[in-house]
Amino acid sequence: MPIRSKRLYLSLLLAVAGSAQATEDCATVVQCNQRGTAAYQAGQYAPAIEAFERQLRRVEQGDSAQLELALNNLILANLRAGDAGMARAWLGVALDRQLNGASTRLHLSKVAEALDYQALAASPQGRYLRYGGQAVWSELQISADPQGGYRARFSPLRAGARVEEYGPAAIGKLDGRLHGDGAAMTLQDAQLGAGCAVQLLREGIALRVLEVFDEGCQDYGGMGISVAGGYIKVSR
């Protein structure tokens, strides 16, 4: 086996081993919270966020107090990592679930202080996220079109029940030009079928995508894939 192939094979083995070790160390809610907290206190925010995401998956359909704790862990870890946009996205998940404990209210003010809402909302360009459960996010990237206006690139995901073991259950890809004034836009040149349409309505850092659901309109992805729903802008 060539040296390069051996190195690649070894890297894959190490990645699988690392993932298996992380699962063993984070098999329960308590273990994930402890693992994430230790990493956070050591200033290792990326592994802390990974552990807190695992914590979230283990409580998402359960006790609301445990869910709020996991979400607040993610909000704080992303703030400390310097990603106020992602912290705002996790805060939105908590607020959408009507979680309003003392920690959530405290982090609401911290996120407001850290995030430059005016700069983020100044242009449609940027990265938007839509939460799909199981700590999985669908993404929308809006960029400038060289011919004028904007382009949209959707990367929708459906988490499924075993995302840690197998990854998302379904993925999709849809892109095209945006026609409109930046507040109300229509996706064009996206190779959608007859009668299919995608519209975007933007207000500040919030964006809602409306989509026609009909035969052939969601052929851009796997089973259960759609780009419709509410998104939040996390970066320019």
Which structural class should the secondary elements be placed in? alpha+beta
Helix-strand sequence: HHHHHHHEEEEHEEEEEE
Low-confidence stretches: 1-20
Distance between the termini: 45 Å
CATH class of the largest domain: Mainly Beta
Structure in words:
This protein is of the alpha+beta class and about 240 residues long. It folds into 2 domains: about 5-115, Serine Threonine Protein Phosphatase 5, Tetratricopeptide repeat; about 120-235, Lipocalin (Beta Barrel), CATH 2.40.128. About 45% of the residues lie in helices and about 25% in strands. It has helices spanning about 5-25, 30-40, 45-60, 65-80, 85-95, 100-115, 115-120, 165, and strands at about 125-130, 135-145, 150-155, 155-160, 170, 175-180, 185-190, 200-205, 205-210, 230-235. The strands form 2 sheets. Strands 1-2-3-6-7-8-9-10 form an 8-stranded antiparallel barrel. Strand 2 and strand 3 (about 150-155) form a beta hairpin. The radius of gyration is 20 Å and the shape is globular. The relative contact order is 0.10. InterPro entries: TPR-like_helical_dom_sf (IPR011990). This is Tetratricopeptide repeat protein. It comes from Ectopseudomonas khazarica.
Give the secondary structure arrangement, pairings included.
Blueprint: H1 3-25, H2 29-41, H3 45-59, H4 64-80, H5 84-96, H6 102-114, H7 117-121, E1 126-131, E2 137-144, E3 150-155, E4 157-158, H8 163-166, E5 170-171, E6 174-180, E7 184-188, E8 198-203, E9 206-211, E10 229-235
Helix pairs in contact: 2-3, 3-4, 4-5, 4-6, 5-6
Q: Summarize this, please?
A:
44% of the residues lie in helices and 23% in strands. The chain has 236 residues and is an alpha+beta fold. The longest helix is centred in the first third of the chain and has 23 residues.
